[in-house]
Design a protein that fits this description.
This protein is an alpha+beta fold and 470 residues long. Helices cover 32% and strands 21% of the residues. It contains 13 helices and 19 strands.
Length: 470
């Protein structure tokens, strides 16, 4: 039977596992004190030894312990994970450089591998993969009981190679099969356009190492395009899954000269870390409207909450995802790492984002202006839908009327499947105008009702300001 060559490493893993078992499983072990750690360690060791000696098949001890650690961490919350070397390497690639893949953000919803959003301009996006698609197979491998990192590893690969994903979609009678060719997925996180002269559109897709620098360059370009000081900025954080906390803070700081940006509180509320805005070299005094939806999570919610609570921006759209927990990644020996939740985010007004999300100042459903009424966000997954999610402060309270829906009905209820799909496809591709390969007039962005409403608010503000100065 294969066993650990490094006995001390095995002992260390047993100690870690036993310590977590005491903390996380009082129903099994009772009210155990620190003095009983040794007894609990003996119990685990006895179980492992019994399986090694008498189980019907030969067991790899190291694999068995690794699976036990995976199971333990997976019981904590949806964002904690024990990362093997290849998974840890993939996590590092997510925030720097480029990688070959198909361009989707995925998560686990009730044990199902679920698409949060496709990344605009990527193979998955062009092929028509949609939010809330459930991936049931990658190539010929079923995803049931597959770790998140394992699925990511299967979908990534050398550019030019192919991967096939099979998805189950709510409105489709049969599973849909997408054969996708992997491409380099650039980690550029900021794009911009000028839909109307004097008014800028800044789209942040995620928060990576150079996001703040890219945002500053984009604003400079917008100001140059307008040939005059910007009269207003539309900051689009829709479908932004988050990223680096440091970048969320520095992006917020671009638009704030003073005030709290975010606070982080751990198990003990007294152990609180507060991040404050500082006056910088850039003086951005133009009004801002922020767009959010249920795909706006984590770092995106920090920025929206900071600018909203400091009265620096008006937030419109629909309630954000509600991922208000802080994860840290601790490297372990042999290339392994532990990603686990250590705290929660709080907005400047002291409100927890966790499972609650950021509520917009003005609820605006997303639709095409030349189509009949209907929104898309009601069918999007949020943090509160994730199994084992951390409880929010006010989670027992009823949500804000299902993000604008009346009597519990979805805004798009009653539409034909074909019409809803056609609208979804058109909306998803409106933002293509910010890419170099799309030669449409940037004004096409105003066909998106949420962008259009943001522009109308900024335009109205400018008219009132001008009228007041006469």
């Amino acid at each position: 039977m294969k066993s650990f060559q490094n006995k001390s490493f095995r002992t260390l893993l047993l100690v870690i596992l036993a310590a977590f078992a005491i903390t996380m499983a009082p129903s099994v072990y009772g009210d155990l004190s620190k003095d009983s750690t040794y007894e609990t360690l003996k119990l685990f060791s006895e179980v492992l030894e019994e399986i090694e000696k008498n189980y019907v098949e030969s067991i790899d001890s190291s694999e068995l312990i690794e699976k036990a650690i995976h199971g333990m961490i997976n019981e904590l919350d949806p964002h904690s994970a024990f990362l093997p070397p290849e998974a840890f390497k993939g996590l590092q690639e997510d925030t720097r450089g480029e990688f070959g893949g198909i361009g989707i953000v995925i998560s686990k919803e009730n044990g199902l591998l679920t698409v949060i959003s496709p990344m605009e301009g990527t193979p998955a996006y062009r092929a028509g993969v949609q939010a809330n698609d459930v991936i049931i197979k990658v190539d010929d491998q079923p995803t049931k009981d597959m770790m998140l990192w394992e699925a990511v590893k299967l979908m990534r690969g050398e550019p030019g190679t192919s991967v096939t994903i099979t998805v189950r979609r709510e409105d489709a009678e049969m599973p849909l099969v997408f054969e996708l060719e992997r491409e380099i997925i650039p980690l550029e996180s900021v794009r911009y356009a000028t839909p109307k002269k004097g008014y800028g559109y800044l789209w942040i897709t995620n928060f990576r190492e150079k996001t703040t620098e890219e945002a500053k360059n984009a604003i400079a370009a917008l100001q140059a395009d307008s040939e005059e000081p910007l009269r207003g900025l539309i900051l689009d954080l829709r479908d932004n899954p988050g990223g680096l906390l440091t970048q969320a803070i520095s992006v917020s700081d671009l638009f704030l000269e003073k005030g709290e940006i975010v606070s982080i509180r751990g198990r003990d509320d007294e152990e609180m870390e507060i991040y404050q805005a500082e006056k910088g070299d850039e003086q951005y005094d133009f009004p801002i409207v922020i767009l959010i939806n249920s795909g706006s999570a984590s770092a995106a919610e920090i920025v929206a909450g900071a600018l909203k609570d400091n009265k620096r921006a008006l937030v419109i759209g629909t309630t954000s995802f509600g991922k208000g927990s802080v994860q840290t990644v601790r490297p372990l020996r042999n290339g392994y790492a532990l990603k686990f939740t250590i705290a929660k985010y709080y907005t400047p007004n002291g409100k927890s984002i966790q499972a609650e999300g950021i509520h917009p100042d003005l609820v605006v459903q997303r639709r095409l202006l030349d189509e009949s009424e209907g929104g898309l966000d009601a069918r999007r997954m949020r943090e509160v839908d994730l199994e084992n999610h951390l409880q929010g402060m006010d989670e027992e309270a009823s949500p804000d009327s299902a993000d604008g829906a009346e009597d519990g009905k979805r805004p798009d209820e009653g539409k034909s499947k074909e019409k809803k799909q056609d609208e979804f496809e058109k909306l998803m591709r409106l933002r293509d105008v910010v890419y170099d390969h799309d030669d449409r007039d940037p004004e096409v962005l105003l066909l998106d009702s949420q962008i259009n409403r943001a522009y109308e608010i900024l335009r109205g503000h400018d008219l009132f300001r001008t009228a007041g100065s006469r």
